[in-house]
Amino acid sequence: MTLRWWDFHWDSGKVLVMGRINIDENLFEVEQKVLKSAMADVVNQRYCGNELVPRYQSLITHYHKLLKVTKKVFHISDSQGQILQRHQNEIQTLLDNANQGFLTFGRDLKVDQQYSAECTRIFGRKIAGIAITQLLGQGSDTLQGTLQDILDRVFSCPKGFEQVALQQFPSVLQIGDIDVRVECKLISQSADATERTLVMMILTDITERLRAEEQIHFLSYHDKLTSLHNRAHIEAVLPELEQAEALPLSIIMADMNGLKLVNDVFGHQQGDLILVAMANALKKACRQTDIIARWGGDEFVILLPKTDQNECLRVCERIQRACDEIDDCAIPLSAAIGTATKDAGVARLTEMLTVAENRMYNDKLIKTREVRKNIVANLEDMLSSRCFESIGHCARVKQLASDFACFIGINMAAAEIKLLNQLASLHDIGKVAISAKILGSTEPLTPSEWDIIKNHSEIGYRLAQSIGESAVADIILALHERWDGGGYPCGLQGEQIPFLARLFSIVDIYDVLTHDRPYRVAMSSEMALREIETGSGSQFDPELVKHFLEYMSKN
Q1: Considering the chain, what is the average pLDDT of its residues?
Q2: How many CB atoms lie within 10 A of CB 304?
Q3: Among the listed residues 238, 282, 277, the one whose alpha carbon sits nearest the alpha carbon of residue 258
Q4: Alpha-carbon gap, residue 260 to 464, rounded angstroms
Q5: With 70 as the cut, is the pLDDT of residue 193 above it?
Q6: pLDDT tens-place string over residues 382-439
Q7: Please, is 176 exposed, middle or buried when counting C-beta atoms within 10 Å of its C-beta (0-12, 13-18, 19+)?
């Protein structure tokens, strides 16, 4: 029998198999021992006189050489097998870590035994021997039939046209919840002078990329916070809405009230919540055919095709009612509104937007005082319910401050009296932004909690500024300054502190001391006055303390 190296198959790196004969590597050593014994017999001339002895000796010599050559061949085959196996493992490792699915199949459309690990993840199971149409079709008979027809044409068309037929294969498919990009390549596999045509399929999971592209497209024409359309979308649909088919066309512009106040007092997170609440009110009030957009900041635009002025005004009324129905915001939800309508002719949306915007600002100007009043009333309600103010505190300090001012001979003009009244209403308004847990704590405050408490002066200042009360804002900011300069937030001292702030701080502390608080019971009037007297020259203006003690002794 002629032995060729390709007739042997490497099995587990230990045994070489040829047909049914197992040849162990140790066999070479045994054969060599037998040869040595035979050579010794010949040399010792145990078969002297036999004419075949020289021929036996030559045969043994050649067989010995054959064994040495064969052993080398087996060792070479062994090394090549190990190298081949190592290369195969390296290629499989590369494929498994490529984050792509690689598989092959032939005319029978059944997936071959070797495929990358990503295929198992994509399909959720082992796929060897399963028809590729079944795997990609995912239970859809129509899709499976389409894929079957394409692949049948690929394997039956004339040589050279297979790739053209393969180009008809879908480039993106959905497998369960995974979106997959599909690439197909024809490859040839030769074995024993025969050639087998295979399709190599490369599967790439593009789910995250598609989701990201969808998100980018959505954000290009939508506001991220409210999910309403944005200005770019409005500008994109302008040409369509300027056609005669859209007439009558109406526009509503709405400017939300109090957003800056909410941002300044409660923080931008609460500001975002009130913007979302306004967006929800608009969606509730408008129709499906209306286009609602956040125009920018606290402004919103609504385009109403096929809508006359009367119907537009009804939508505005529904917007106001929807705002009134929302009662879980930091301030009452409201908006200034302006409209514009085009019944005939050519609708110039840019001009209509300008008209609606001017009317909106006019509405805002008219309603400013009412809006501020509602906001302040709402904040005062929050102050009394959340901040543990004793009942009647604001009214008492208002009266006491006014009477004390008169006692010391201050003739206040109407504007100053109004300022004092506003101060009595708003002096603690900054506390609405502080946790009720901290304000109502019966335990001594930690340093960090005390820092939070001290912020209420600045919050109150920003709030008063936001509602247009600058003079009150300056006094609120100075209410916790001390005569000796040890107060907060600015460390003012002496007469640097506004006079009304020095006067009001004495009146306020007296009322606080003589009424119950969560952290202590009320003092008597005498004890409270002694506390104020103790703070004369350090916490309080000494001259005003002197006058206040005189006033209280007479009243």
Answers
A1: 82
A2: 24
A3: 277
A4: 12
A5: no
A6: 777 665 566 778 889 989 988 898 888 877 667 777 888 888 888 888 888 887 777 7
A7: exposed
As a whole number of angstroms, the distance between CA 490 and CA 481 comes to 7
Rounded CA-CA distance 218/211 in Å is: 10
Contacts of 344 (CB under 8 A, 6+ apart): 247, 248
pLDDT over 60 (residue 16) = no
Q: How many whole angstroms separate alpha carbon 303 and alpha carbon 407? A: 61
Query: What six digits make up the tokens of 402?
Result: 């006014």
- Phi and psi, residue 244, nearest 5°: -65, -25
Considering only CA atoms, which of 188, 146, 133 is closest in space to residue 163? 188
Check: CB of residue 5 under 8 Å from CB of residue 77: yes
> Are the CB atoms for 182 and 171 separated by under 8 Å?
yes
Which residue's entry shows tokens 């079709």? 137
Tokens representing 130 are 């399963």
What distances in angstroms separate CA 298 from CA 92, 144, 235, 350, 486, one per listed residue?
58, 53, 18, 20, 40
**What is the predicted pLDDT for the residue at 195?**
67
Q: What are 127's two structure tokens?
A: 């796929």
Q: State how far the Cα of 285 lies from the Cα of 272, in Å rounded to an integer.
A: 20
CB 422 within 8 A of CB 257: no
Cα separations in angstroms, 363 against 108, 254, 301, 340: 76, 10, 15, 13
Beta strand ranges found along 171-257 (DSSP E): 172-175, 178-191, 194-205, 249-256
| Spatial separation of the C-alpha atoms in residues 280 and 282, rounded to whole Å | 5
Q: What is the pLDDT of residue 246?
A: 80
3-state secondary structure 265-324: HHCHHHHHHHHHHHHHHHHHHCCCCCEEEEEECCEEEEEECCCCHHHHHHHHHHHHHHHH
Averaged pLDDT for residues 159-186: 87
Task: Say what the pTM is.
Answer: 0.64
Residue 20, pLDDT > 50, answer: no
What digits encode the pLDDT tens for the residues 484-542? Answer: 999 999 999 999 999 999 999 999 999 989 988 766 788 999 999 999 999 999 999 99
**Is omega for the bond preceding 248 within 30 degrees of 0, making it cis?**
yes
